[in-house]
Structures are given as structure tokens and as C-alpha cells.
Design goal:
The chain folds into 2 domains: 136 residues, D-Maltodextrin-Binding Protein, domain 2 (3-Layer(aba) Sandwich); 93 residues, D-Maltodextrin-Binding Protein, domain 2. Helices cover 37% and strands 25% of the residues. The strands form 2 sheets. Strands 1, 4, 5, 6, 7, 8, 9, 10 and 11 form a 9-stranded mixed β-sheet that branches.
């Protein structure tokens, strides 16, 4: 075969491969190595949902999710960069590679699993409906005609849309901090949020006489990863398994949430 003929054959093969596509490694196959090479892991955390995520008096991130992320970065041997997120932008930040992981009480659901991958669970949160003591509310039915604040994109919002009467005015905010402010200012009648947030508000504003009216749902949360990132998922699950078994994550949960970590299921 002449050199020119050989080149034509190689060129034809390359053209075919370009059309059909070479077998490629999953994006996640490079996940851990890329993070180690970078020397930093970027984690999205909602810093407006105490006690899971908040800022202390020095405006430094803190809370149960922050402490867990710090432990994760330490085990990985890299620096931690926290990117503030909201319930609405958690998934977009993940799928557009703005963050490596989402750790923001990210509750597991089949709908969300269409867009992202979930690690094994490592904590539980429950949504409740809270309002002043003087307001008689015992069920979704009694929300008819009332204004209820909620964080946009949250499971709580989905529950209200599904269960509340059509005359309920669901007032959506971009984050829990804004939804909380509306409740404290008396701009809404009630507030649908996570139990720890409700308990924190009851403690911080005793003059408002807030109370939990009824439980809306219980959800397990996990770490969110980009779909296909199997290498990073394997490492994250190993991290969670190890620290669930040795009790580290239970200590973090009880320290911040104020109750023992329930027995955690596997995914």
C-alpha cells in the first residue's frame, strides 16, 4: 500500500469515527482526579436555612451542611469553596458545572433524579406549616383564602400546590430567608418550611407566638451530583458510609438540629 493510499484509508477511518463517536469515559470517571488536581472542591450550600446553613456574626458560613462539607473536604485532602445557593438554583448550578456537589438539605425525589444523581441519604428533614397561635389551622383544608409563604422550588411548595385548596394564596420567594421575613413582618398568614427552621423562628421571635400547626411531609436528603459522575458518587458514598458508621454525621446532626439522627436508609 502506497503512503498516499494509507493516508486515505486512515482519513476514511477517522471520518467514520467522527460520525459514530468514540466510546468515551463517563464524565464522572475524571471527577475525583479533577478535584484533586484542582486542590479544591466547590460545594453549593443554602446559607439562608438555619440550622442547616447560615452565616455567623462574622459572616462566615456555618451550620450542619457546612460542617459536613468541611469534613468531606478534609477527607478528600482539598480546600473547600462554598457557593451560596437557593432551593430554586440548586439543580441549575449543578448541571452547569458551577459547583461539584450540592449539600443544601437536597431531598431525594424521582423528579429531581431526572436531572441529577443523589448520594445515599445522610439526614432527614420534615416540612411543617407554622402560624401564630391565634390562627386556627389544623389541616390543608383550613388554608383556604389564606396567604402562605414558601421557598420557590422546595418540596414544601410542591406539597402546598398539591394539597392546599385552590383559594390558598401561595406566596413564593426565592429563598427561605425572604419567606421567613414575610412571615415575621406579618405579610402572610402562615409559612410552610422545614421543621428546624420553624423551631428556630419560634425560639427567636417569642413575641410573635408562632407555633407548628401540622406536619406536611418527611424527606431524606442527600448530596447532589451531576448525572454520570459515577467516580465522584462512589467516593461520596464511601465518605458518607464511613462517617455514618463511626457516628461523626450523627454528632453533627444532633449538634445543629437538636434531635438524634434517625436510622438512615440506603439508596
Amino acid at each position: 500500500m502506497t503512503r498516499s493510499c494509507f493516508r486515505r484509508v486512515i482519513g476514511a477511518l477517522l471520518a467514520i469515527l467522527a460520525l459514530t463517536g468514540l466510546p468515551s469515559l463517563p464524565a464522572a470517571a475524571q471527577g475525583v482526579d479533577a478535584i484533586l488536581k484542582r486542590g479544591k472542591i466547590i460545594v453549593g450550600i443554602d446559607l439562608a436555612v438555619p440550622p442547616f446553613g447560615l452565616q455567623d456574626q462574622s459572616f462566615k458560613p456555618t451550620g450542619s451542611e457546612v460542617e459536613t462539607a468541611q469534613l468531606l473536604a478534609k477527607d478528600l485532602g482539598v480546600e473547600l469553596e462554598i457557593v451560596p445557593t437557593t432551593a430554586q438554583n440548586r439543580i441549575p448550578y449543578l448541571v452547569t458545572n458551577r459547583v461539584d456537589l450540592i449539600m443544601a438539605t437536597f431531598a431525594i425525589s424521582p423528579e429531581r433524579a431526572k436531572s441529577v444523581w443523589f448520594s445515599t441519604p445522610y439526614g432527614a428533614t420534615g416540612s411543617v406549616l407554622m402560624a401564630p397561635k391565634g390562627l386556627a389551622i389544623k389541616s390543608y383544608a383550613e388554608l383556604a383564602g389564606k396567604k402562605v409563604s414558601v421557598a420557590r422550588g422546595s418540596f414544601t411548595e410542591q406539597s402546598l400546590v398539591r394539597e392546599a385548596p385552590s383559594t390558598t394564596q401561595i406566596v413564593r420567594f426565592d429563598d427561605d430567608a425572604s419567606a421567613t421575613a414575610a412571615m415575621v413582618a406579618g405579610q402572610v398568614d402562615a409559612y410552610g418550611t422545614a421543621m428546624p427552621i420553624a423551631l428556630d423562628l419560634i425560639k427567636r421571635f417569642p413575641d410573635k407566638q408562632f407555633e407548628v400547626k401540622f406536619s406536611m411531609l418527611t424527606a431524606w436528603y442527600s448530596i447532589g451530583l451531576k448525572r454520570g459522575d459515577s467516580d465522584l458518587l462512589q467516593w461520596v458514598n464511601s465518605f458518607l458510609f464511613f462517617h455514618l458508621q463511626n457516628g461523626d454525621l450523627a454528632k453533627i446532626y444532633e449538634k445543629w438540629i437538636g434531635i438524634p439522627l434517625p436510622p438512615v436508609p440506603t439508596l
